Amino acid sequence: MLHIEWWHHPAYGYMSQLSAADFAWEHLRRDDEYRQDCQTLALASRQSAHQLESFAQRWGLLFPE
């Protein structure tokens, strides 16, 4: 994970305007474990419903039906 003081960086000023969901995504997409899980899932030739459900539950994700 990046270890910078983002709250002091001018490029991150927009963060204070984000919704809770958008802020959560900004955090999640920088998480090394999430990125590794995502890559593992993407590289699988087929994803089972169980794999997708486990991934979603682990990371607190909701997908539209």
Automatic annotation (TrEMBL):
Highest rank taxon of the organism: Bacteria
Domain Transcriptional regulator-like: 5-64
Pfam families for the chain: Trans_reg_dom
Official protein name in the record: Transcriptional regulator-like domain-containing protein
